[in-house]
Amino acid sequence: MRSMKKITAFLLAMVMVLSLIPSAFAADDDYFDVTFDNQEPAAGDEITATVTLKKQFGMNTVKSLSWSFRYNSDYMTCTNVNLNGQTFKYSLNEKKSGEYASNISFSEYSDTSRWCSVPKGFKFEFTFEVTDDAAGQVLNTSLDCYTYGKKFKLLSSEENFYNLTVADSTGEPRPTATGYTVSMAADQQVAAGNTVSIPVTVASSKKKITGFNAYDMTFTYDPAALTLNTTSDDAANLTVEDNNGSVRVRRYGATQALGEALALDFTAKKAASSTVKLNAAKFDIDANSINFDAPDATITDADTVVKSLWKVTLPDGFLSTADDSMLVEDGKDFTFKATDTHYEYYLNITTNGATSIVKMDKATYTIKNVTDNVTVTVDNKIGKTYTINYVVVDNTTTENKATVADLVAYTATTVQYPNDYKFTVKFPGTGYVVGVGIEPDKNKRDYVRQENGDYVYTLLGSSLTGDENNEITITLTKRENTSQHKIEVVGSGSDAFSENNALTFYSGENYTFTLNKNDTYYDYSVLVYYWKQNIGGNGGKNIRMEYKDNGDGTYTIIDMPYADVTISISKMAKAIDPDAVEVSTYVELNNKTVFKVVVQGSHELLNRDQTTYSYTWFTYDGQKMYCNPRYTKFAGNGSSSSVYLVMVDKGETLTKEDAMEKLGIVTSTEQENKDQTLTVGSDVNEDGIGGVGINRRDVNDVQLIYDLYNRRYDSFETVSMRKFLKADVNYDGVLDSQDAVKLAGELLAD
Description:
Immunoglobulin-like, ten-stranded mixed β-sheet, 5 helices, 54 strands, about 45% strand, elongated
């Protein structure tokens, strides 16, 4: 008994006993049955041994299994091991060092969670090649099998060895073993009247055999169901003899590679099921032809069932409901459908030599009891007519619930594909909305909001789809409008926005507002927009809205959004408006009085195209006036006021009427004369001394203000009009000590 050490994994290997006589273990350990496919090996032969387990191996007591087959690799070479799916640890150790030196080992080890076992009936297969110089040799082999678990057990010992004697060469020729196997193709399916090809495939169990030269095969088939098309071919050395369904095929010539040896071509006569059967097959190589007849090949698959079916030919746009084969068994029904279900089809169905016209107005059509090939063509098609049903759901708290007539106007209750269908959903009144649902929901729709608040809906003809009864249901749901938002009015022309205009609106409704415009003196521009937040809440942008100028001073915005709306109204003078002109005393000098002329009005106007601007500048006595945003009485883009100083002799005055005569307007498409704009800040002398930017101010700026209101200067040539105007740092419209006080205080805070 061989001793074993406990190791992480024991060698689990089923060892093949290579013997001419089937052998087994002793009766008390009779676990295995060993058989061999070659009982008379010669030098160069292959031998495959099959070991079969006669009973459960391992049971519940075995933690480790080990098999070891030892042999002399001087004369035997292992060419294949087939474990038949068993997951053993496997190793092959071949050493050219005499008997028992080489071995094939298999092992399996289990942890505490389970026990090793191999089921009864399991098979191991091992293939050896006998070397060419093994003739007359005795091949020594030994099988050892061990288990380890609750106890150690040796199932065989080294004394149980098996010897194989290889026959000496007699000088007589021996055929080369070919090991050919032949199989028919898988079952075939073919349309009646069409051809089918059935390949016959040859293989070899011998690794050295890669081709063949000659074969002789016999087949049978049903001539009532099939016609054989394969014929003799002298160029290919192929002979085909067909005797009413019994076929003999022979071939000889150059070596042909293993694989497809022959393809039998048939034509299916009718829809039926028949079998092409390989009855006998002989294959051989040219080397054996010197001394031997071709041996029988092993037929592994003898039958190919040919299932012939009737063929249905459909026009474009039609499909079988079952599969894409367009084939049907004899006597069975065939159902097909149209991919475009918007039409009623008139079909020509030709079968058994006759043609009939049928109407297909449902999703599918069935041809009953098919007994011949069928051809279907389209004779005519007519667009389906769909019935329109209206349903009203009133979810409001009103006492009198809405009816179909209250909510919708339509001209027809049917529509034929592919025509559009239009209907009008009436405006339900301020504070109410009407939802529209279409079933089936595959019907696509467009809608347009009318000036009166109605919606005109269009069901697009290209997508019209009815239910199983060719009906389309339109559901009108009336409910309170809970989405109310605000109107904000901005801009230089905001004073024209009528106080009677509503400052709130309901989303989805139209909104009309009135402008009380002074068209004599001003041009007006209106811009409507709302703020749209980006998805995720990160920023957004203003979205401009279209509106209609009704021509009577009213404007209508169609379909108000679900957001607050801003109405920006700008105005720009086209003539001098007396109400926009102000004349007042600015400062008294020693011999002069300085009057201030102010004209209220925007210098910028958004044109009606909503993309370009016009610009205007007021003039006094032909000179462009200064723009001073601090004197404006309104807000908005382009908002400003124009100012000019007029110096007259002491005792004289300047009236509004006198000023009006010298005022004028200059218009342009480009913004210009930026130097006419008085910058905000307290750098009165504009010397840029002290500080940074527009507020470069110091005590000299205070001094200049002091000197001006104390009448030191009385000429715009000495001190420019710009500096006189900038000296009004508190923007109260006059130049006095308060301006010096304000600037001095600001200097203290700097």
